[in-house]
Amino acid sequence: MQDKGAPTGAILQRDKKTYAIVPRTPVGLVTPDVLEALARVGRKFEIPIMKITSGQRIALVGLEKDQVDEVWADLKMDVGPAVGLCVHYIQACPGTEVCKFGLRDSLGFGLELEELFVGKALPAKMKVGVSGCTMCCAESYVRDIGLIGKRKGWTMVVGGNASGRPRIADVLAEELTRAEATELVGRFIEYYRENSNKRSRSSMLLKKVGIDAVKSAIL
Ligand code: SF4
Q1: d(Cα 141, Cα 146) in Å, to the nearest integer?
Q2: CA of 101 to the centre of ligand 1 (A)
Q3: Which residue has the higher pLDDT, 1 or 113?
Q4: Which of 21, 123, 145, 177 is least enclosed by beta carbons within 10 angstroms?
Q5: In this structure, what CATH number is given to the domain that contains residue 61?
Q6: Whose CA is nearest to atom 2 of ligand 1?
């Protein structure tokens, strides 16, 4: 729930009194310093709920309004977009960095995409999943944009959604290098921004225009 008078990066909760914040942890990677900072503010401000989210982040829930700025100052972390009309997050599986099945560097690619696109203003929220092989542990087929690592390169899928009206994404292109895939992600985001109505997710756009129209516009 959004509230016009909310402090920086704070989301009003259902009690209409307390707030949640979501610090930015790109592709779910954390360090001992990040975890210590979170634990420190959790204790200091007696934060009642600290919850790992589906976007590979840790939400701090139940803050009083006047605590929010102080918590951010203490954390020294950026805001992870969680309710605005923009790219919310890039989730990524471990890929070749760790996983024995990995065919591509999904973590490195996810981090690169995070830097480039998270927070970019759009007609609706957008989620991206980068998987290092066809097992798709980063849920690529049910994300607005999905990348899937294969032996011959990256497959890019678009228009997926895991919501109450789930939709499997359509294949936009295959055998892409990482640079080609990065460029195509940018082109698809622009296409979506120019052709979609406010609050209409990419799945609705794909349902309306079909993948062939997207291909002929941006490939
Ligand atoms: S998608 Fe593939 S590479 Fe990524 S975690 Fe799953 S099995 Fe491993």
Answers
A1: 6
A2: 6
A3: 113
A4: 177
A5: 3.30.70
A6: 133
